[in-house]
Amino acid sequence: MLSLQNIYHARNRIQSHVVRTPLVACPSLSSKNRQVRFKLETTQDTGAFKLRGATNAILSLDPSALEAGVVCASTGNHGRAVATAAARVGAKATICMSNLVPQNKVQAIKALGADVRIIGKSQDEAQVEVRRLVKEEGMSEIPPFDHADVIAGQGTVGLELMEDWSDIDTVLVPVSGGGLIAGVALAVKSVNFNIKVIGISMERGAAMDASLQRGRPVEVPEEPSLADSLGGGIGLQNEYTLGVVQELVDEVILLKEEQIASGMQFLYREHGMVVEGAGAVGIPVVQENLSQRLGENIAVVVSGRNVDLKMFQSVLDGELPFGA
Ligand SMILES: *Cc1c(COP(=O)(O)O)cnc(C)c1O
Predict the structure, then answer these.
(1) pLDDT-based confidence at 121, cuts 50/70/90?
(2) I need a labelling partner for 213 at 20 to 30 A (CA). Which of 43, 45, 268, 276 fits?
(3) Is the Cβ atom of 146 under 6 angstroms away from ligand 1?
């Protein structure tokens, strides 16, 4: 199905379009017996790793498909990534949103050159419009995670980790739909099966974790969380990510809101970095030793930086905007 080779092909395709992000040391989490380094996808264009998968999926389309344009329903990091990747290759991107999406998000996506369609009152209704555009206008949907080219693109994070740190023994990866962790796990475990790959989500609405427990995709109620980029399901028709996670991911850890907040505070205080909740979830796992599997050379994927500044400020002030 998906292999290391797909990830190498993805890399060749996308390398002139995306940033090869740095791996930096974190002295304050490191000790004599433990090295901790951060893979900074916060420095990726668009502020999150999602540009990798979106770019690979778009560049894999044939010319006639590119001509018809691409479409998705994400208003978050995936939407930004699709809009940006499409603009770079001269393809038209259409992003469908519900009328509940705040105006600043609508403007941000428009500013990236995408066509915005405001449809209905929910993300589900926006998704219906996506399907219509695929069927009637021949557009190609670029899904946020459950797609072979998207997973292969995200897997380039894992390739870079292996190249930059040959002694790596543990990788901590935020998990929502599982595209990132599936790609990273495929990349690192193909090279060295002993490397531990640990996923992290929030307690509030961890669809991948619930699906792993049941052995099939399940829906969980969506609740507001500091890790908003980790919200949403894995798709009841999940084809790829659940299987790869079942096979290759060693453990999934769930965090409380206050632990996510402490990760964001740490990265700001110690590194001066503004990181969104989803991007900060690896920090408390190391700080609080939340897994028995942590080794001596731990890479933490810091997945994105796109956070609402008011929310960020309130986290720095010690508040939990969505409760404990
Ligand atoms: C999308 C996203 C994730 C989760 O990625 P999946 O592939 O859905 O598991 C984590 N962090 C950030 C910043 C994201 O945008």
Answers:
(1) confident
(2) 276
(3) no
Tally of CB atoms within 10 A around 165: 17
The token pair at 4 is 């290391």
For the CA of 176, the closest atom of ligand 1 is 9
Q: What residue type is assigned to position 207 of the chain?
A: A
Most ligand 1 atoms within 8 A of CB, residue of 49, 82, 274 to mutate: 49
pLDDT beyond 90 at 307: yes
Residue 265, burial from CB neighbour count under 10 angstroms (0-12, 13-18, 19+): middle
Closest CA to 302 of 319, 285, 320, 321: 285
In terms of C-beta density within 10 A (0-12 exposed, 13-18 middle, 19 or more buried), how is residue 296 classed?
middle
- The answer, yes or no, to whether residue 100 has pLDDT greater than 90, is no
CA–CA gap between residue 131 and residue 109 (Å, rounded): 20
Element spanning 94, H or E: strand 93-97
Q: Is 169 in the pocket of ligand 1 (CB under 6 A)?
A: no
